[in-house]
Write a structure and sequence with these properties.
Low-confidence stretches: 76-84
Helix content: 40-55%
CATH architecture of the largest domain: Alpha Horseshoe
CATH topology of the largest domain: Serine Threonine Protein Phosphatase 5, Tetratricopeptide repeat
Strand content: 5-15%
Largest sheet: 6 strands, mixed
Shape: globular
Distance between the termini: 17 Å
Mean pLDDT: 85
CATH class of the largest domain: Mainly Alpha
Number of helices: 16
Length: 369
C-alpha cells in the first residue's frame, strides 16, 4: 500500500488497505512523508525517500525485502507496531480552522486563515511546521489532538474556528501541548473584518511567544508582510484560492472562475502578487489543458514577479510555458528557481513534473511528484 496525502484521503484506498490487513499481506510505504491514517498508523510503514541518485535507504531495503518475501510465497512476519517517535521540539501542526458561520460558502475564509497562519509560522526558522497539504487531510474529522501530535511527530497542535457575520469576524485559536493535551495558549478575537490581517499577525506572534521561540528581526518583518492591505482584494483572493484547491478538476468553469476573481482582486490592488500568480496558474491551465488560445498566462506571471520576485508559482508558470514551447533549457532554469523559492509548493512540483515529462525524463518526473 503506497500512502500519500491523496491516498490517505481516499475511502477506496483505505478499503484496499483494510482488505490486505485482514489477509495478512499488508505492506505499507509512504512516499511523501504522509503517515498512514488510523488504524493503519499502528502498523509498520516504510519511509522511502527519493533523490537525484534514485530511491535508496533503509526504508527501501525494508520494502524490497517484504515484497520479495510475499512474491516468493515466503512467510511475511506480521507487521509490528512501532514505538512512537520522540516528538520534535517546537514542531507544530496548524489544523484547518472550523467554519462556524452557518454558511458552507464561508469556508473559504476559515481555510484561507489556516493556510496563512501556516505560512507565517513557516517563516520562523526555530519552528518545524507541518505542510498545509498534510494538515488538511485531517479536515472535518473528530480528532484526538494528542493522537494527531503523535502521528505527525509534533510537539504542539493549533486548532481554531472562524465565525463571520456581516462585517464582523470572530476568530478563536488554541495552542495545545501534544503530549499532555493541555492548553498552552488560547485567545478569542472579535473584530471588524478590516482587522483580519492584524488578527493573523497577533496569533502568529502569540504562538511564537508561547513556545518561547526567539523571533529574528527579519522573521518578524516577514510575518507582518502581507500581499495586500486591501481586505476586499484579500477576500476575493481567498475565494479564488478555495475554488482552485477544491473545485472540480477538469471542469473549465473552475479556471474561468479563478481568473475572474483574481482579475477583480488585482483591480482593487494592482500590487497583489499572489493574486497575479494564481491568475497565471489558472490561465496556463486554460491554454494548455483546455486549448483556449488567447489566454496569455505569461502576462500575470510577469506581473507577479515584478511585484514580488519570491513567489515560486509565477516562475513555475513561466517554466511550463517554456517547456510547452520546447525551450527546455529555459524551462529547467525557471523550474530550478521555483523549487528553490518554494520547495514545499505542490503547484511548483506539479509544473516540474510536467516539464520533465515533456522532456521524456520519466524518472525525474516521478521523483518530483
Amino acid at each position: 500500500m503506497v500512502w500519500s496525502a491523496d491516498a490517505a484521503r481516499s475511502q477506496w484506498v483505505r478499503a484496499e488497505a483494510d482488505a490486505a490487513r485482514e489477509l495478512g499481506t499488508l505492506i505499507q510505504v509512504t512516499v511523501d512523508g504522509t503517515l498512514p491514517p488510523l488504524p493503519f498508523n499502528q502498523i509498520q510503514c516504510a519511509i522511502v525517500e527519493c533523490s537525484s541518485h534514485g530511491v535508496t535507504g533503509n526504508g527501501w531495503d525494508q520494502l524490497a525485502g517484504s515484497v520479495a518475501a510475499l512474491v516468493n510465497g515466503e512467510h511475511v512476519p506480521a507487521p509490528s507496531v512501532e514505538a512512537p517517535p520522540k516528538s520534535r521540539r517546537n514542531a507544530i501542526c496548524v489544523l484547518p480552522f472550523v467554519n462556524m458561520s452557518g454558511d458552507a460558502e464561508q469556508e473559504y475564509l476559515s481555510d484561507g486563515i489556516s493556510e496563512d497562519i501556516t505560512t507565517d509560522l513557516s517563516k520562523v526558522s526555530a519552528l518545524d511546521v507541518i505542510a498545509r497539504n498534510t494538515a488538511f487531510t485531517l479536515k472535518g474529522r473528530s480528532l484526538d489532538l494528542c493522537e494527531v501530535a503523535r502521528q505527525l511527530n509534533v510537539s504542539h497542535v493549533l486548532e481554531g474556528s472562524v465565525r463571520k457575520a456581516g462585517s464582523r469576524v470572530r476568530i478563536s485559536a488554541q495552542l495545545i501541548d501534544g503530549k499532555s493535551g493541555s492548553h498552552v495558549w488560547a485567545e478569542r478575537y472579535d473584530r471588524e473584518l478590516t482587522d483580519i490581517f492584524a488578527i493573523q499577525d497577533e496569533i502568529s506572534k502569540a504562538i511564537v511567544e508561547a513556545l518561547k521561540v526567539k523571533l529574528l528581526p527579519a522573521e518578524k518583518k516577514a510575518i507582518e508582510q502581507r500581499g495586500t492591505s486591501n481586505v476586499d482584494a484579500y477576500n476575493l483572493y481567498l475565494m479564488a484560492r478555495k475554488y482552485w484547491v477544491s473545485g472540480n478538476y477538469g471542469d473549465i468553469k473552475r479556471e474561468q472562475r479563478v481568473v475572474r476573481l483574481c482579475q477583480r482582486a488585482v483591480e482593487l490592488d494592482p500590487g497583489y502578487g499572489e493574486a497575479w500568480a494564481l491568475m497565471a496558474l489558472a490561465q496556463v491551465s486554460l491554454s494548455f489543458f483546455f486549448g483556449r488560445d488567447g489566454e496569455h498566462a505569461e502576462v500575470p506571471a510577469d506581473r507577479a514577479i515584478a511585484v514580488d520576485p519570491t513567489i515560486p508559482e509565477a516562475f513555475a508558470v513561466k517554466a511550463r510555458i517554456a517547456a510547452e514551447s520546447a525551450d527546455f533549457e529555459q524551462a529547467n532554469l525557471l523550474i530550478g528557481k521555483a523549487l528553490q523559492l518554494g520547495p514545499d509548493s505542490w503547484e511548483v512540483h506539479r509544473k516540474a513534473a510536467r516539464a520533465a515529462m515533456l522532456q521524456r525524463h520519466i524518472d525525474d518526473a516521478a521523483r518530483t511528484l
